[in-house]
Specification:
The protein is of the alpha+beta class. 55% of the residues lie in helices and 9% in strands. Strands 2-1-3-4 form a 4-stranded mixed beta sheet, with helices on both faces. A hairpin with a 3-residue loop joins strand 3 and strand 4. Helix 6 packs across helix 7. The radius of gyration is 17 Å and the shape is globular.
Length: 216
């Protein structure tokens, strides 16, 4: 059974949601028969890299006050902490994640995509290092086990893995994704947004039952 997961490195709910899914999968009786596919999604595809604090940028984007956005960040930090994840409030900057997604597809080709994504999320939220900085992106790649020169060549070529990122995004649109995290189980069941590990477990169980019934 295949589970496809659309996430964006800039999304705090993806950070928490991935951890909850891993917890649900770890307790799932048929986990060895589940193929997990990570797919790309850009929350802010038109964003430009810069030094604008994430709190100010997102507050302006959604018409919130700075205080309201800080409260949302603190809520996200609490949810992350409950999953054993580090989360610093206030120090991240706003930017474009397209290059990080391109590197994630390189990591997929080299068999270390899960490791790369784990590191990228950790660096963004727990360490508040800018994942939009090229040197940081290369550091992520090396820590995940990629060759620095190969990763640098990908970043230098705007077409490298761009098609793979765009294909993931088109598929998300075709499947009706309005946001992330977005989980698709066996191309029959969709789960959107931050859900509990228990809810994700039930989704896995239901999808598995129907997967097996279709095979019999």
């Amino acid at each position: 059974m295949r589970v496809e997961i659309w996430t964006d490195i800039a999304c705090p709910w993806c950070y928490v949601g991935r951890a909850r899914f891993e917890r649900a999968l770890a307790g799932f009786g048929h986990r060895e028969s589940v193929e997990v596919v990570h797919r790309s999604f850009e929350l802010n595809p038109d964003a430009r890299n810069g030094s604008t604090p994430i709190i100010d940028a997102v507050a302006a984007q959604y018409g919130r006050t700075r205080e309201q956005q800080v409260a949302r960040e603190e809520h996200a930090a609490a949810e992350a902490g409950a999953e054993g994840l580090g989360f610093r409030v206030g120090g991240r900057v706003y930017g474009n994640t397209f290059d990080v997604h391109r590197l994630a597809h390189l990591a997929k080709r080299r068999g270390v995509q899960q490791e790369f994504l784990d590191i990228a999320f950790r660096v963004n939220f727990a360490e508040e290092r800018s994942v939009y900085d090229r040197e940081t992106q290369l550091d992520l790649a090396v820590e995940a086990g990629l060759d620095r020169a190969e990763a640098d060549a990908v970043l230098a070529d705007p077409d490298a893995y761009a098609g793979e990122v765009r294909a993931d995004e088109r598929l998300a649109a075709e499947l009706g994704a309005g946001g992330v995290p977005f989980f698709v189980l066996d191309r029959k069941y969709g789960v959107t947004g931050l859900q509990s590990a228990q809810m994700l477990t039930r989704a896995l169980e239901q999808a598995w039952e129907n997967h097996e019934a279709a095979r019999s």
